[in-house]
């Protein structure tokens, strides 16, 4: 393997350092987009990477297939095949899923404020307009999970903007819930909630009442602050609440009514609230 040259520049040196630490990397051209498929792989005709299910180097003579071209192999990264890409690269990208992490891409100050109020603290990286919050663990990638928020993990790439600050914490249920799309109801649900969610009864065995009350208050605030995609926000909020407290019997009619009232204040009908609650229960196997 040859050493980086001045022509290939700082991006190649950064990519090799990242690859040495187990982070799959690839070059990005201007506009934060990957280099296009080579002629041999036009429209994924080569077949090997057409299903896009695994990261790694393409066997063609140039980087292609977006995130799937990311690699930790220094011989590929510094090869002649990739030399032109590095000469014209505007940035280094990496495959978060291949590195075992999930990036919550917060695209504006409002999204950052929401994350500070709603998500566990973790390693953060400052971006041009907002922040990347990086969690340990992977999940499916999804764009526009809420205003100004994208999830980048498996089958996606993110710009490398530095190591960031803070400790990387475990991917929380609240982030996983953001990537869950509401399933279509299999049957018509009741028009209103007729009974509280029942678990094994008694006080929540793993959370204090104060924690539960604060969680409900944060869920209500999340619904209240929805400026778009209210329908999806309500469902994801219900899913997040149930994923934490749905199996221990600590939720009461009072808690559920607070959530339903907040949703209806944003224009949701009683029927939709009940449908969203039932779908969240089904999604979690409750």
Structure explained in plain terms:
The protein is of the alpha+beta class and 286 residues long. The chain has three domains: 9-93, no CATH class; 98-171, no CATH class; 209-283, no CATH class. It is built from nine helices and ten strands. Strands 4, 5, 6, 7, 8 and 10 form a six-stranded mixed sheet that branches. The longest helix has 16 residues, at 209-224. The relative contact order is 0.11.
Features:
single chain, 286 residues, alpha+beta, 6-stranded mixed β-sheet, 9 helices, disordered N terminus
User: How many separate helices?
Assistant: 9
Count the beta strands: 10
Query: Could you tell me the radius of gyration in angstroms?
Result: 22 Å
What low-confidence regions span 5 or more consecutive residues with pLDDT below 50? 1-7, 47-56, 186-202
Give the H and E element order.
HEEHHEEHEEEEEEHHHHH
Helix content: 25-40%
Provide mean pLDDT, rounded.
79
Biggest sheet descriptor: 6 strands, mixed
User: What class do helices, strands and sheet pairing give?
Assistant: alpha+beta
What is the overall shape? elongated
